[in-house]
Amino acid sequence: QNLLAEKVEQLMEWSSRRSVIRMNGDKFRRFVKAPPRNYSVIVMFTALQPQRQCSVCRQANEEYQVLANSWRYSSAFSNKLFFTIVDYDEGADVFQQLNMNSAPTFMHFPPKGKPKRPDTFDLQRIGFAAEQLAKWIADRTDVHIRVFRPPNYSGTIALALLVSLVGGLLYLRRNNLEFIYNKTGWAMAALCVVFAMTSGQMWNHIRGPPYAHKNPQNGQVSYIHGSSQAQFVAESHIILLLNAAITMGMVLLNEAATSKGDVGKRRIICLVGLGLVVFFFSFLLSIFRSKYHGYPY
Fold first, then answer.
1. DSSP 25
2. In this predicted structure, which of 88-92, 106-110, 223-227 has the lowest mean pLDDT?
3. Domain extents for the chain?
4. How far is CA 72 from CA 27, 61, 83, 135, 282, in A?
5. What topology does the record note for this protein and the membrane (predicted)?
6. Within 13 Å of residue 46, how many CA atoms lie on the same side as its CB?
7. What is residue 20's three-state secondary structure?
8. pTM for the complete prediction?
């Protein structure tokens, strides 16, 4: 009992200084692995040093800090849950002990027993947004954390600048507003919205996935997620460009069929449009097939 009380007291002291407790191998083995424990520990295994070049680790760490601060300064804060972090350069032995070869990784260590499979957060499928982490923690510990994010005025400022820009443009062109009725302009704007939505930008905004994934063993960077349940931000950009190229091909085919210009020129436009559609649609189909394994074609 005295040992448990000392461990809890020490963790509470560290938590009062910093919401996320940094741990090396010795601290991890003493406060997370070794009994007795009557508290849960959330551990983020990461590699934040610049030489590791893990941009995903930095992004995940920001969300992790938001979640830990939300817990630390909430009225429900108690000694039943602690947030910790183990950096590879400070605890490589911990990574080896757990046979861990990727970062970032989130794990829950329960008060009793060893972590089970659900105690490892499925970052690749769910993303690392603080809200998703809080939901996972609630499932594993019955501790509900309401995420409070620091105020971000960038969206408000951007909206104000956009309104000012549009208002200024309308004022300067107040004597000639024919451009408002330009069908081509509105069509391009509509296509931009369609491309953004069909490429998964809204999913990215909700789930907060990493831009790409770098394998820490061989340094290989993956831009396409291998599962149909998730995607990378880079993947959505690739899909957007592919959709735009296919659309351009369809526009050229339509132009070749409806225009009344030179027959040779129309034939060239038709071939270019057909080439764009065939090549980029085949590329899009191969990505779809790689994500939906076993699809019948």
1. H
2. 223-227
3. 2-141, 180-291
4. 20, 16, 9, 17, 51
5. Multi-pass membrane protein
6. 25
7. strand
8. 0.59
